[in-house]
Amino acid sequence: MRLDDESESTNYEIRSGRGGGGFGLPVGIPLGRGGLGCGSLILIGIISLVLGVNPLTLLGDGGGQGPVVQQQSQPGEAPGSSGEKTPVMSRSLKVLGSTERVWGRLFQEQGGTYQPTTLVFYSGGTQAGCGFANASAGPFYCPADKRIFLDTSFFDELSGRFGAPGDFAQAYVIAHEVGHHVQDLEGTLDKVHAAQNRLSEREANALQVKVELQADCYAGVWAAQDRNLLEPGDAEAGLRAAAAVGDDTLQKASQGYVVPEGFTHGSAADRQKWLRIGLDSGDPARCDTFGSRGP
């Protein structure tokens, strides 16, 4: 990606300190409620492969870990021994800055005002508005405090273990989580949550898939709207990343078979399809994964 001339977003926090052990997901962010983003199942798949357990057993609460003792910066500050952001943080903030420009313009065209999210960098574990978060959760968006949480070591797993290297694969992950923030601002997450409370687990999962696929499409819309950042091969890298986080891909890797009823993020083919729709159209109106009746 051509990020050299891109301005970094100032909407970020850097939190230092490492939280408690274990592989639990953040407390209070259940799947099927719009809380976890595209990266979550990758880390679950990795953990399952290492431990030899069914990944579905890891989709519960985080085991009640207490809050991590941490130092927290104010937005726009970068604490630490050197007082500087790492290169991967800088790249992430350039992507975030680009999403702010794109969604700011798209909201304005519709007569609205885009309120940016904040990207929280943490290492090991931290406390989110949705509960305790640790690295096993992968990147996720928390509606309770309208923040994206990211342990950047996740990108090493994305590249090394799942064959999705490159700046655009990382950008896709961030843009997907920003897509959840857009859904939050649009009121989609609240509507989905209310609907899921009336549904069976299977039906709630199916509705959650639509949430995740729309966020994939929104990620594609961002890239299409700021296409000058893309270099040859970037779109393909994003599509590989989308396939890597498909529910069927992860289920096959972890347990050797696929359970469609357990999908919460969508198949590899569907995730690629909706990312491609966004990339080809650049139009968020084309990202109606719910159908004309909505969630």
TrEMBL record:
Question: Where is this protein chiefly located?
Answer: membrane
Q: How does it sit in the membrane?
A: Single-pass membrane protein
Does this entry carry the keyword Signal?
Answer: no
User: Is rRNA-binding among this UniProt entry's keywords?
Assistant: no
Q: Keywords on this record?
A: Membrane, Transmembrane, Transmembrane helix
Example GO CC term: the record gives:
membrane
Q: Where located? A: Membrane
Q: Which domain of life is it from?
A: Bacteria
Region described as Disordered: 64-88
Concerning Pfam families, the annotation shows: Zn_peptidase
Biased segments, Low complexity type: 67-76
Q: Record's InterPro entries?
A: Uncharacterised_pept_Zn_put
**PANTHER family listed in its UniProt record:** INNER MEMBRANE PROTEIN (PTHR30168:SF0), PUTATIVE MEMBRANE PROTEIN YPFJ (PTHR30168)
- For this entry, the protein name equals Zinc metalloprotease
Question: Organism source for this protein?
Answer: Rhizorhabdus histidinilytica
Q: What is the lineage of its organism?
A: Bacteria, Pseudomonadati, Pseudomonadota, Alphaproteobacteria, Sphingomonadales
